[in-house]
Amino acid sequence: MRQILMLAALNFLVGCAATNLKPDSCFDMESCVELVTNKLSSNFPADRKFKGQEIKIEFFLNDNAEVIEYTITNESGIPELDIAAIKAVKASSPFNELKVLPADVFNKFKHVKLTVAPTFEGL
């Protein structure tokens, strides 16, 4: 009985720890969009003065999943935030997680258009 309780407790703890993990690879369009967005967000400043702001950004990847070109397609109106968005794209490159995809799916991710916004998790 004690072993069953310990296994149940261990299973609970492992399950709790696993729920907060961010994916490190993707397998379909939806999971890849989430992965790219999470990676960009993790490199984006979490400054409260940017709350409610967002930037539309477009970038292109080469065959090695490296960002080779980028542009802001809709500026935030705050130069500091726009610069931070570009820095987040550069810091997120390469997107090696996408290289596990079949070539036809990976090719869809070579041209990325996203709206990015600062997140405030844990602040």
Mind explaining what this structure looks like?
The chain has one domain (23-116): Fusion Protein Consisting Of Minor Coat Protein, Glycine Rich Linker, Tola, And A His Tag, Chain: A, Domain 2 (2-Layer Sandwich). The model is unreliable at 1-21 (pLDDT under 50). With 123 residues, it is of the alpha+beta class. α2 packs across α3 (79-92). The chain has a three-stranded antiparallel β-sheet with strand order 2-1-3, with helices on one face. The protein is globular and about 40 Å long. Helix content is 42%, strand content 17%. Residues 1-17 form the signal peptide. It holds the Pfam family TonB_2.
Can you tell me the CATH class? Alpha Beta
Structural class, please?
alpha+beta
Radius of gyration: 18 Å
Q: List the total number of helices.
A: 4
Give the second-level CATH assignment, the architecture. Answer: 2-Layer Sandwich
The amount of beta strand, in percent, is 15-25%
- CATH level-3 fold name: Fusion Protein Consisting Of Minor Coat Protein, Glycine Rich Linker, Tola, And A His Tag, Chain: A, Domain 2
Q: Strand arrangement, largest sheet?
A: 2-1-3
Could you give a short account of the major beta sheet?
A: 3 strands, antiparallel
Please give the share of residues in helix. Answer: 40-55%
Query: Given the C-alpha coordinates, what overall shape results?
Result: globular
Number of separate domains: 1
Order of helices and strands: HHEEHHE
What is the β-strand count? 3
Mean pLDDT across the residues is: 77
Tell me the distance between the termini. Answer: 42 Å
Stretches where pLDDT is under 50 for at least 5 consecutive residues are 1-21
Protein name: TonB C-terminal domain-containing protein
Signal peptide: 1-17
Organism: Pseudoalteromonas phenolica
Keywords: Signal
